[in-house]
């Protein structure tokens, strides 16, 4: 039939965000919490939930996440790439990565004038993450 579908097509669902929560796995929980607290200049509330230790990123009305230690929380640098908010200029956060014990994999790079910049780093646990900012 030359690529023409005879099936009735479903209405496409458009969502505001495709990320609702994130968890960054850790083995050395305290070191991981210190790393993110230092590069973002934040305080993270820590809780124990069953077999898991969690430290929450302080998000207000937006998408939140946590550092997690527990069964199945294994740091890696090969899974999905999570882009964290780099604020007004991701360079401010990226410059703190080496001092906090992480490693920069890709320096601040222009995507386009409209899309902004990104950078990639490895945290103290060996997780590969990215930062994004408009500037």
Structure in words:
The strands form 2 sheets. Strands 1-4-3-2 form a 4-stranded mixed β-sheet, covered by helices on one side. A 4-stranded mixed β-sheet has the order 5-8-7-6. It has helices spanning 29-40, 91-94; strands at 21-25, 45-49, 52-56, 64-69, 82-85, 103-112, 116-122, 128-133. By secondary structure, it is mainly beta. A hairpin with a 5-residue loop joins strand 7 (116-122) and strand 8 (128-133). The protein has one domain (21-133): 2,3-Dihydroxybiphenyl 1,2-Dioxygenase, domain 1. The mean pLDDT is 92.
Number of strands: 8
Which CATH architecture? Roll
Radius of gyration, CA atoms, in whole angstroms: 18 Å
Number of helices: 2
Structure classification: mainly beta
**What is the residue-averaged pLDDT?**
92
Level of helix content?
10-25%
What's the number of structural domains?
1
Q: What name does CATH use for the topology?
A: 2,3-Dihydroxybiphenyl 1,2-Dioxygenase, domain 1
Order of helices and strands: EHEEEEHEEE
CATH class: Alpha Beta
The residue ranges in which pLDDT falls below 50 over 5 or more consecutive positions are none
The oligomeric state is single chain
From the N-terminal CA to the C-terminal CA, the straight-line distance is: 48 Å
The CATH superfamily bears the name 2,3-Dihydroxybiphenyl 1,2-Dioxygenase, domain 1
User: Strand percentage, roughly?
Assistant: 35-45%
What coarse outline follows from CA principal-axis ratios? globular
Largest sheet report: 4 strands, mixed
With strands numbered from the N-terminus, the spatial order across the biggest sheet is 1-4-3-2
């Amino acid at each position: 039939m030359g690529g023409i579908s005879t099936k009735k097509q479903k209405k496409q669902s458009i969502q505001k965000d495709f990320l609702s929560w994130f968890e960054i796995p850790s083995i050395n929980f305290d070191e991981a919490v210190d790393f993110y607290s230092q590069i973002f200049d934040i305080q993270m509330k820590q809780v124990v939930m069953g077999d898991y230790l969690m430290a929450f990123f302080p998000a207000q009305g937006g998408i939140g996440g946590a550092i997690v230690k527990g069964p199945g929380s294994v740091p890696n640098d090969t899974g999905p790439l999570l882009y964290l908010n780099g604020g007004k200029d991701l360079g401010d956060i990226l410059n703190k990565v080496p001092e906090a014990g992480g490693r920069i994999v890709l320096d601040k790079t222009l995507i386009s004038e409209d899309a902004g910049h990104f950078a990639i780093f490895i945290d103290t646990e060996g997780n590969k993450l990215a930062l994004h900012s408009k500037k």
